[in-house]
## 1
Amino acid sequence: MKIDCLSPSWIIERVGGPYTDFRPISSLIRFGTASWTYQGWQGQVYTPHFSKSRFKRECLGEYCQYQYQGRSLFRTVGNDSGYCRPPTTDHLRRYLNQIPDDFDMCFKVWNQLTIPRYVNHPRYGTWAGQPNARFLDAQLFKDVVLRPFREAQFEPHTGPFLFEFPPHGMSAEKFCDQLDAFFGQLPTDFRYAVECRSPGLLCPRYRNILVKHSVAHVYTHWSYMPPLLDQHQRLGTFTAPFTVLRLHTPLKMSYETAKKRAEPYTKIVEELPQMRRETVHLVRQAVTEARRTYVLVNNRAEGNAPLTVQALSDQLRNMFVANSPIATGMDD
């Protein structure tokens, strides 16, 4: 006997008598980690037989095959390398050789497009401290970022492009104006998501621009942002037919401290109950509204991203089971 549970995409299956076999099979929810090349996951996600060079080249295929409770746990993954350099056509073709059909990769967008002003740091050379003339340059994005995806025919595996905007001194009005103009020039056959790391920019105009262009707000659990549900309350709604959550670090903790606390990423160093609860709440709400949902977890949140994903998956399943017609005595 099969019974729909709150959403057509969630099925609860009764296997002979007691309700002991509950199987979430949502096509809307895609769990993954912020990246995948962590040596600390050998013996957990990866079999410990790779050389270091081969590990980086080939571990993505094994990542995609990782099983939890008899199912593939990861149906997406973040790719942070695009933040420093956009992937080439050859890079994308190599990924295609390792990922299954129903798998998406979410690429961070080149930082030359998302930094309004270069930090005053020697690594930027003569650009240090200067305004960035490439900031939100739509033609540059289409030519340098999108073109390789088309050439590699990577579109079926392309999750939302992640535009991560660091804290900056730009006014909300100016930022929203540039965001509006930028997304108005982009092709609509790709999906885009904005991770804004300046709490003051989460205003009605920001929300309205994202809604106008069907761009998702990224609910980011990051050092100096408000909690996930606080972000949603400020926006009042999801802004696109899909949504993205990225769980980076504990709140009010710097990246450096979170990194030191979590290394070598082999275990949960501290559970973050509020982060888990609010993630599950947002995912459940998005699914009931038939929105595809991407959840990307960083090791630096709790110490070991795969274990955090497993815990979130269990918590979601238990929530849907608890609210099912079976559990509430409404089984006719």
## 2
Amino acid sequence: MITNNQAEYEAILKGLQLLHEVKAEAIEVFGDSQLIINQLIGLYECKEDTLRGYYDECQRLLKEFPHVSFQHVPRAQNQEANRLAQSASGYRVFQEVLSSETSNND
């Protein structure tokens, strides 16, 4: 199982990969994890080993875009970002499978 922070990084990473493929020049990154946003803009250092790989790959891809902006959106106001992060991580799929199996066993 992965952490919320790993799911956030995975969602951002997948978005950056897609934007890189379509050769986007100006991007806006919205996220509901203040920790992740602040790490990516350099306010916080990424010290956790489990996040470092995500952080490094995001930084590598971010250098490919001429214009990048970041926006922190509080989790309570950003249900869509949470859903996307869960989908990107496989968490939502796992939860749906568990729910389906539980219903079938009744």
## 3
Amino acid sequence: MRSGNAGMKAEKPTRLMTEERRREIVSLLQQQGRVTVDDLTKRFAVSAVTARGDLDALSASGALVRSHGGAVPPLNPAEEYPLAIKESLHQDEKARIARAAVQLIRPGQTVILDAGTTSAQVALQIKKAKIGSLTVITHALNIAMRLADAPDVSLIFVGGIMRPVSTSCVGPQAEQMIRDLHADHFFLSVDGLDPETGLSTPDILEARLNALMIKAARETSVISDASKLGRRSLSQIAALSSVRRVITDNRVTRPMAASIRAAGVDLVLV
């Protein structure tokens, strides 16, 4: 009996230490805006496995969002975050989504790529796939730079008012240019997808331009990881029914998947 009681008592400090450490991680995250596994191992004298376990547990509870090598605070869909932060989130999922998107493209077609880190992954996959002659239209400087040296890509850059947070161009000049163009595919990366309110993004001018891009393309594919589904951002782009398909990762919930399909939209899970 004594040995059993001793075992039970020994477990309590371990649980308490774990809870205290995780509370400290959340506090540290609020102060610094980001934590890394390396920093946590040094600060708390724990292994990388333990640090990752803490971050995974806090992520599951909604206290933070896992990023490459660490974590960031929960993202507010009404706010827009720098590319450096967004690029560190859901990297594997974005790469799988991009590979699925590129499989839809055929030689000789014209493609519009929206701003965003998933769209940047599509640009990278276009270079790797060597599809053949393509025309790519984009208003995002980071994507244009990725494709600038692609030998088989004819690049059309849509200019306008530069938004530093996303390196994308918006405004009347960009809108007029899109009105004069036509495309086979538009790959749209959204900050929010809600079956009732549709597709959304934090910036009003970005939303206006995205809506015109939908009209300019024969078909539109939403390319967003599952964390964006069920969220509403500030500015509505269009109704969900205005797109042909949604390409997302397999973390999507069954009710959300059913709602997307009920809107007459194809759902591709990767």
## 4
Amino acid sequence: MPLKTTPTMKKTLTLLTLLLGMCSLAAAQTADDIISKNIAAMGGQDKLNSIKTVYQEDSIFAGGAKLPLKAWMVDRKAMRAEFSFSGMTGFSILRNDSGWNFAPFQGQTAPEPIPADEVKKGQSELSITDAFVNYKDKGYKVTYEGMDDAQGSQTYKLKVTITDSVSETYYIDPDTYYVIQVKSKATVNGKVHEGTETRSDYKKTTDGYIFPMETNSSDFGDIKTFTVKVNSPIDNSIFSPSVKVAAK
């Protein structure tokens, strides 16, 4: 015989159901739990920790033009990005202790050192994985800021405080647990720089690493990735501004 419920009982059961649902949602929405699920979606902690170097070939689509971009990274140590335009090749190099920019298409005739404050504030960019991965070991602080809209969808919002003047906010898809948007904010030499990057078309490489193959950057525009090589040997000499890297 089915249980008959009075109006009062129905209200009580409805309230109880809502409370249980809220408790379940709150439990699922802690920062560490969201991070754990993102790491699992990206191949697992061991897989991410095994990434020591990355080489990428991309194309930037801006102003109707397609510009080739190559990047070399040694995790948390150094990176070099090379970009070509009008037959000229420029680069940006960042290391733990120094950095240089060279843009011959803007009239530069020699690499220019990056100011020390910018080098210091840019160190988080040397991490191949996202800032919240191993954030405690890095000395960062992560806070969960609830659900928020990104790219027309409700997402988990995580803020990573890297230093008092540098932060990154990640928007994570609740279905795939992939990062679909990142907003960065940094104060350098008294000036605030804010940027936004969207990510999509996540794919797995032949050796099991997962990367977004399409991004959109507020600084560079649309970027498509065509080649990703993980843990290929990288000669540290390419992180010198005097070295011209041969085409690969």
